[in-house]
Specification:
Mean pLDDT: 84
Shape: elongated
Number of helices: 3
Strand order of the largest sheet: 1-2
Structural class: mainly alpha
Strand content: under 5%
Number of strands: 2
Order of helices and strands: EEHHH
Largest sheet: 2 strands, antiparallel
Length: about 120
């Protein structure tokens, strides 16, 4: 076999084939791990941003409901009943939390988890 620049005529021998194999494995690993992780990162980022937006919006709506109960109901919640708007607002917040927990527990993600386990 003729040597060309330190290589054999068949492409460099076993050492070069091993290097090519290693590079192929590294490229495959990057393709199969880094690509999905990047898209997963975007998915998580949008999920976190959406969660923060919903939380801020819910807090602002609850605060608006409290202020509306305090100012727009006339003399209904004055004197000994001045604590009632706070109780109503806390009940509304608890209702939102129960609704969220119920949807998490019975939502599509829970059904998909049951299907993967083989139970229905």
């Amino acid at each position: 076999m003729a040597r060309e620049g330190g290589r054999t005529g068949r492409g460099g021998g076993l050492g070069a084939a091993g290097g090519d194999f290693f590079q192929l494995v590294v490229d495959y690993a990057k393709q199969e791990t880094l690509g999905p992780l990047k898209s997963l990162g975007r998915f998580v980022a949008f999920g976190v941003a959406g969660s923060i937006a919903l939380t801020v919006g819910t807090v602002l709506l609850l605060l608006a409901a409290l202020r509306a109960l305090q100012t727009e109901t006339g003399t209904t919640f004055t004197g000994n009943l001045s604590w009632l708007p706070y109780l109503i607002t806390v009940a509304g917040a608890l209702g939102v939390m129960v609704l969220a927990a119920w949807r998490i527990k019975k939502g599509p993600a829970a059904r998909a988890g049951r299907d993967q386990d083989g139970r229905r």
